[in-house]
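--- STAGE predict ---
source: upstream dedup step, 1 unique chain passed
mode: sequence only
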Amino acid sequence: MKSKYSKQNSTFQIGLIFAISLVVFFPHHSVAQTYRDSTATIEYRVNDLLTRMTPEEKFWQLFMLAGEIDNDPARFNDGVFGLQINSDLDFTASVNRLNLVQHHFVENTRLGIPIIFFAEALHGLTQKNATIFPQAIGLAATFDTSLMHEISRSIAEQCRNQGIRQVLSPVINIATDVRWGRTEETYGEDPFLSSRMGVAFVSEFERNGIIATPKHFIANVGEGGRDSYPIDIGERSLRETHLPPFEACIHSGGARSIMTSYNSFDGSPCSASDRLNNRLLKREMGFRGFVISDAGAVGGANVLHFTASDYADASAKAINSGLDVIFQTSIDHSKLFIPPFLDGRIGKATIDSAVARVLRAKFQLSLFEQPYIDPLKGKNTDTSTHLQLSRRAASESIILLKNKNSTLPLPKSIRSIAVIGPDADTLRLGGYSAPCSRTSTIVDAIRSRAGKNIDVLYSKGCDRIASQYVAVPHSQLSWSMGDSTITGIKGEYFNNIDLTGRPVFTRTDSSIDFAWTLFSPDPQQLTYDFYSVRWTGTLRSPVTGKFKLGIEGNDGYRLYLNDSLLIDNWSKTSYRTTLSDVSFIANQPQKLRLEYFEPTGNARIKLIWNVGIPSDEEIQIQKAVDLANRCEASILAVGIEEGEFRDRASLSLPGRQEELIRRVAALGKPTIVILVGGSAITMSNWIDQVPSILTVWYPGEQGGMAIADALFGDINPAGRLPITYPLTEGQLPLVYNHKPTGRGDDYNDLSGQPLFPFGHGLSYTSFEYTNLRIEPSEMKAGQSAIARFTLKNTGSRAGDEVTQLYIRDELASVARPITELKEFQRVHLQPGESRELSFTITPDLLTMYDQNIQPTIEPGMSRIMIGASSKDIRLRAFLQVKSR
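--- STAGE serialize ---
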């Protein structure tokens, strides 16, 4: 049913504008309400409003929702913190809708407290027609903070025009393990780079009256590169690695909100950690903004971490431990979390402190004076400047990983190009992207740039993921109940693991494709994760032939076909795929029985077959190889699959993409591989066969054109890796700034060195570093020094060089990283041009944590290194720091 709050007609809009104008010029709220006096101090207004609020109204200011007002606005008559907006409407319709929603809160609630409209804006506002920039990891790869400021201003402008006053961005977690599926959302593995990029992003939003929300506090990637896994690290690691970006975004960026993470930290859920939220964030760091949970994380204390007896208990523990705002996905959840706000389990002072933080922010945003969005302000915004900026960002983010024999840029004489691969005819934008109709694919962009004199031929070759098996579909399963035939399969569920006694319940399951990872199959009827299931029914194949039928999932299971035991895996040891050959006659029924038991939870079970799976991928690969053989050069666009809660155990290209690369490269013609994705990719199986490799991340909506520009030499790639690329997964976790080992760091069968180091990136030109001077070379602690050097473009093309300053303690009271990035500059030079550059070595860059984990600058010698990556050091000198 369409909400009455989304009606769009001229009479409705005129009425809305008239109603809002009445509110602006003739407000119905009494001027005696001091909190409405814009001349009073914010603290006075906050305190006045607090004295007027009921416990219910206070709760609702601490409750934010990923959703919109529904057909019963009276449910919101006590107000709400804010609503998350992901609009698919055109600009005017979206603004009018938000204004009408805000009108309810300003005019129809007792105190008229306006709400905050919030949204995701990781690399662009997630609303229709907003500009999509390269994914965050790509923005980090630019090593260009001035560009980051411009991008953040652009996104902030679009947010403000749409009425968004808070963004749930940026992600400033440190990507300590590139298997993590959310690496793409971060600024990489280095605390300094992440801090600089985070401050550039946050500060522009805050300057434009939009609250930024750095997340996730704290350390959201655990062992094995797994999302939201428990974190048990020491105080030193916390402060040296994970805390700096948050400190920077708060103190230098001005962030007024922080989002906690899903995981536990040192035994406590981060949303209910007194150590993190009260003692560290609010008291030690002096954070005066408000702390919000990740969506659904507060309830996760009892269903994920098992540290709360129910949702009310989780609510009380979170707020008492320093959380201010509970983030949920439905208004119906409110009844689960409100009890402790009313029954005394959360003290009045604690509640008032949290509410004051929220109200303070709303007063700072001037929402009480200007609650509505001006529909004229952003209607005629010139989007061309945003799109140009997106293209520039994509250009700066592209990294030339390898370029043997100067394969790139493509020669002007070329007349035929084969463009191959699953990412060639699509442009993926990465996580937290809005739908976009303006994208140009890689192959289309190459065709556009190539013009009429170059033949550009395309073949997909293969998919990113090889679909060898699929779940047996709903339509091919049935069971009988009396005289009725029911589509699906009969499931009998037992409260024991040996299928004994009467089932607790029986139901029709549409298919057997379950992941009961957090709960039992039915928490209301099967309380514990100790159960067994028997599925029975009839299976039909739509075609005749010999196929594979089997099970993917946790053992143990038994599969019977026509009462014969087909697969026997009745033991609990692992997760596996077990298949058997089966001959089918089209539409002929076969009796099916699958038995499964689970004694410890975290269950996954799927009935699979290869019926209907296309068997022509080999034909498609050969077609691509034949196409490449007809052309002078081949460009392969390939990529990975990742994302939130999509961590990778393997870092190689999935499916048959590696095979596709090898077979095309074996032709002996120039072959360029374009890597699409947000994290590291292993390449040992094919890198030596390929002369040129570009990584383009998820390059944003203008990425296709930027990639074509790089291929033809219209731009000179100069991005740098914000993460380390390992040779193999066995080296992980692998970061450049680790501490010295007790012995060596190699393996018996492999080097400990990376495939590509942090900061790596090549160019179509060359650069020379000379004449390093440290002035002064000796100084007292607390003073600054300047490192001066000369950079020269010694090649024949103009280009950017990212000069990087690394520092290493020669001797310290505690083990220190073998090297640390401390500054960087992206510099553009014409062929033959020289420029003197400098880095200022401030006390902050020399500060470390001593044995008592107190910040200090120790006297001693520091190695000053300047180069083109963490491994490609071109200049070295020493700086002597003396006692004060």
